[in-house]
Design goal:
317 residues; 9 helices; single chain; four-stranded antiparallel sheet; alpha+beta; binds fe (ii) ion; 17 strands; six-stranded mixed sheet
Length: 317
Amino acid sequence: MSAANKNASTEAAALSPFRPGNDDLYRRWRDAKLNTYPESAEQLVVEIADANNPGAAELSRISQICTKTNMAIYATAAGDREDRNIARTIGARLGLRHLDPNMLADEDGITSLTVVEGKSGRGYIPYSSHRLLWHTDGYYNLPEHKIRAMLLHCVRPAAEGGENMLLDPEIAYILMREADPAHVEALMQPDAMTIPANTETGVETREARSGPVFSIDTATGDLHMRYTARTRSIEWKQDDATRAAVAFLEELLESQSPYIFRNRLSAGQGLICNNVLHNRTAFADNASAPRLVYRARYYERIAETEWKRLTDGDNQL
Ligand SMILES: [Fe+2]
């Protein structure tokens, strides 16, 4: 990185509304953010006429919605076509090109989420039909492998259940900062959250990892969040501020907040997001057509969704 770039990066982080103490900028951004904020998942839907060749207007509408809410739902007519290129193409056309090759992804970096006995038996919940608690994807990744965006493309929904609840991390941030700025400061501590080593079958496949819940991207000043509501595989910093912040967040996620959206993807639909908080209800499969969802995790954020767009331009949705 050149000196000029480095200075620009440092400046971007310093001028971020997410930095504690930047109160005027924060308030300006918050007001722009909350202006006409959607009230349900239906407002996030964008129709894509040709699943394999999304149009410029369709893509820019997705970016516009994601600038406001960090998530959009696309609806194609592909139905239950098993075409991984739909997810790949829509992601790539929105600037998402670097896939996180997690341990259990298929060879092309896109993971097929479906009930697989062998995998779920080893405790990999995403391959089972049990409910998933609130989390952001890749919360256990190294800082250089932050998951900034994520895409779920539904080929076949479950016979019953498999619904997601969704919450924009920037909304969680606002609600916490409004309640007590000390909450967000506590969750920005570099040792707020520790993921213990993964010692499946007695072999350590991943070292213990500490990191913040909220961090600010040095290049853009955008907010990143890593979180899991799991209690078994997580150690929170044992100080009063962190305990209070985590309790606030847990309460928010269990609340009836109007900012929490519910959505159940149908065949041919997908969720594209800047790694928002989400959970999933348990589901029951139709044995002859089990639930199948393709998941792609990316290191980039969705193109043209920087926080500045809300304060600089038209922030009506
Ligand atoms: Fe997830």
